[in-house]
Structure formats: C-alpha cells, structure tokens
Write a structure and sequence with these properties.
Blueprint lengths: L1 E2 L8 E5 L3 H13 L3 E5 L2 H10 L4 E4 L8 H11 L4 E5 L4 H9 L4 E4 L4 H18 L9 H8 L5
Parallel strand pairs: 2-3, 2-4, 4-5, 5-6
Antiparallel strand pairs: 1-3
Length: 153
Amino acid sequence: MIGTGCNDVEGLHIFVDDDHEMVDSFSRWFRRKGYQTTQTYDVLQSRSAMAEYDFDVAVIDIGLPDSDGFDFLDELVRRAQFPVIVLSGLSNREIESTAIKHGAFRYLLKPAKLDEIEHAIEQAARQSLTTAAPSTRKGDRTSQLESTANVEL
C-alpha cells in the first residue's frame, strides 16, 4: 500500500518486516505525519516494490521469513541508491556491529519509538540527498507519487 503526503523530508520510504500489524501501524503513523510510505512483509514483495518505485530510505528487519536479513541488506546496499535502517528485535552488539559493517545507516532495536525511527529516517534522507549524484535520482518524484497513491502491492 502506498500513501502520499508531503513532508520537509521529501521522498518515498519503505518498511520491510514480517510483522504485519507493526508495519501497518508504522505506515499509518508516518502517513498521518505527511510521509510517503510503502510497506512490504518479505523480501520478494520488497524486490517487486523496489523495481517499480524509487525509494529514498528503507527500514528493514533482519529476521525476514524468505531470506537471510544480512543477505538482503547486502543486496540493498549494493544495488539501491538509498540508505537502509535496520530495525530488529535482536539485541546483540555483534549483530548490530555486523549490520553496520554490511552498510546499514543505523541499527535500531525493537520496540523502537516512532519518533526515534522518524529521526533516523530524516537523517538518512538528508544524507542521501546531499550525497546522491544527479544520475542516481530517478524521474519526476511528483508524477511518480501521484501515479502510485493507494496502490496495493
């Protein structure tokens, strides 16, 4: 599901977690605040959404049912042109360190507060906007978002 809105942090953000209730709740909260969001529940859905839409920040869980989370993180860092925030219930310093070494912008521990996630997204989006080369920014964002409003994935 894609929701549109406007915020001072321009862009489209994706939440990837197999906890449907949590991801849906996050997306509703962020859309109410004016963010543009998509939620997916596994790697396969995420790949499909990422092939279709130009995201600016991803928030992913490491414990996904259809892929090793670190493999997915590696794939996103290697192929995507946006920062990835890891949100995980695994409270182990070694796992956090591994996520950062694999290229995660930030590692947040569940249950993270929504304003903590929002702050991490804003920081990641701002960094992405200042470091992205013009050739990595796809198409006209406004027309892309208008054409995807409230689309089921």
